[in-house]
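Support request, please re-run this one:
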Amino acid sequence: MTLASGTRLGPYEIAAPLGAGGMGEVYRAKDTRLGREVAIKVLPAAVASDPERVKRFEKEARAASALNHPNLVTLHDIGSSGGVEYIAMELVDGRTLREILADGVVATKRLLAIAAQVADGLARAHAAGIVHRDLKPENIMVTRDGLVKILDFGLAKLTQPEDLSGATQSPTVSGGTEPGLVMGTIGYMSPEQAVGKPLDFRSDQFALGSILYEMATGKRAFARGSAPETMAAIIRDEPEPIGSLSPLTPTPLRWIVERCLAKNPDDRYASTRDLARDLATLKDRLSETSGSGIAAASAAPRRSWRRALPWILAAGLAVALATRLLGPSGRGGPAPGPIRFAITLPESVGFRTGAIFTKTALSPDGQRLAFVGVTREGRKLLLRPLGSLESEPLEGTEGAQSPFWSPDGHFLGFFADGKLKRIDASGGPPQVICEASLETLPTWSPRGDILFSQLDGGKSGIYRIGADGGEPRLILKPDPARGEEETLWPQFLPDGTHFLYVTVGWSPRRRELRVGSLDSKETTGLTSAIESRAEYVRPGFLLYARQGALLAQPFDPESLRFRGDAVTLANRVHHFNGPANAGFSASQEGSVAYEAGPRNTKVAWFSRGGKELGTVGTPAPVGSVRLAPDGRTVAMHIADTKTGTSDIWLYELSRGVSVRMTLDPGDDTSPVWAADGRSFFFRSDRKGAPDILRATVGAPGSETELLALPGSQHPEDASPDGRILAYTELSRQTVGDLWLLPLVGDGKPTTLLRTRFHEEGSRFSPDGKWIAFSSDDSGSREVYVVSREGSGERIRVSVGGGALARWRRDGEELYYIAPGGSVMAVPLPLRGGGRLEPGQPTLLFRVEGVIVDWDAAADGQRFLIDIDTPDPAPISVLVNWPTLLKAN
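Re-run finished. Output below.
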């Protein structure tokens, strides 16, 4: 079946065909709801006409759609229209690996850059229990930026009949590959696939090994004259040694390929994450491991390579470090290659990525790293010389956000307490530069000018002030004629007069990188293809993030033109598409520090005694969990690692099925159930500063605006009678306030608590008469209970710190989280006159890791907890990154 241009499949309008194969025809199409281009795959008639296979396909596609990873193509939607079954997925602009292989043997550095990304994507899927089953060059795309995308993940299994006897009639590929026989493509299937045995993740490792072999040698590992002969070779024969076909292939790479191609799955990698680490390590250390030591090591026994490789790489790294530290020897030796290492935090310090604020700042000379650490006293700036193992706090920087350096490296600027401040990097008291609120990362010119953005309602724009203080002056406002609502992330160019900045439009969502000037009101547009803030680095590069990857692209600051293609420096970098934030900081000496992207968290049930009873959903960057009133469904928000933004998902506990409820590209978080369980409230930034929306269960895309006010509103809980929504409003003056929004009547919000302290986490008691919340008014965060009317005294419940209060369904017990991951229970009996008298808090159990969010079952016997294991090294540093551009 061929679809003509203009054909509609649900909300998608077909534009042009992209290709066809055994797994279906693929078209370029437009999503008429969101105005974005997508790829539409129409399933083959053999699949679409079989209801059981369609059902299995939909189940697998839902699982695959949750695999948020930069190297996996995103599945947006599945549907049926006029008897046509289709899936909508991310449209990738690039070349398939098959097209790249048509050019001949792939250079080792490029091979490893591609292989490391493929393995990283596989590892993510394998951790979620999903196996590709049909990995091949046709299913691997490489963009112009060097970003790798794996196609058709998890779909191969369900486009094959359950009865394998008929599988020989279902080809899975086209254009240069042979028909598949048993759930796979001949030439890349594993021995266990070839004989029809059960498969696991190690089958994908074998396929990747076959692909790497072909990239290194230009020859397929097991190609024979016919399909049966090829299958027999896969089962019995060893491929011709890589060294005899491509002698310059590094020995460690040969060992990796040989291990992947082991006939017995037990001889392959026990974890695809280990395979990904070995490839990434070899990629980063390639120039350092080239030499006689590697050649001599080639005689090592095949099965001992895993023990030898780390020592070889370590030796190479030591040589590279020595070369870098001691300088050139004058003997014409090779320049040192890139060096990548992680910053380990002190035990008492945590680290959290941010949506608006930045957290790291690398000094201009690349020798010192300033970052925002989370201590028991709150946020504080810490300074880490890269030649030291210690991170020292800078006193007087409590509450700091968005650190930035002076051009000479003598001072650090930062925001705290609604003010822009600076501090001598060697210590001393901070100095106030000016008042500033809801700010983004500033920039400091050699002439002493500082530019910063404000997001505070009518004050939005870019401001200029001298480093010695004074009154900030608005120099650039958003231009509504261009659809601009915010101007963010100013960064000076080398002349100290021109600066980069990002414009943001919320509805429709649009980002553009532009150039402004201190001497003119005229601005110049550079590109709308860059979705994050950018930094200029000598001698001529722009660094920026795209889909969770950190990129570098040659750029001429005088002509304001790009001079070449972008190259990927790192994957899994923190990137939040909403305000175009990206967690990196570059020096002018070839180093860059970057924050790790979203981590997968675990959502698990625990008994009252602390026994883990099982997990919910697949590993993903989850940010909240809320049980429906009937306890059958969990609402959660899950982050997309490519953009950093989140969507609301509903997970049915009995069937283990999840459904995406929000489709807007904005950041949708913090779902709160309505009392009847038929709808839910959530927080969204789709029109700017976060507002509160409402959506109907079972109707994705049914969102309606409930509350849109200046500032940021965050839904917390709905009253049991369905008449009131409690929410928190964030502001600079009072940090966090508690409000009540009537859901009937005039809908005018009223204040529950408004102090100079930070209150949050409102939860109604089951009878609706009381509200539990947390506040830091005592110097540490504690849990309190107050009447719904806000009158009377606030009753303190917790002892020694607490937050995230949750009620038992009968209202006679309250739970909260104490420091150290302790789950606490407090009896709350009603006394005469309707008074609450909290009992003594009791420890139920402790959880290893950080409790991001949680909820309690109605009877208080089980708890659903979203757990994040802290990353002890959340910041990485890449030294001498320009050599990566030379390698490409």
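The two ends are 41 Å apart (CA to CA). Residues 584 and 594 are 4 Å apart (CA to CA).
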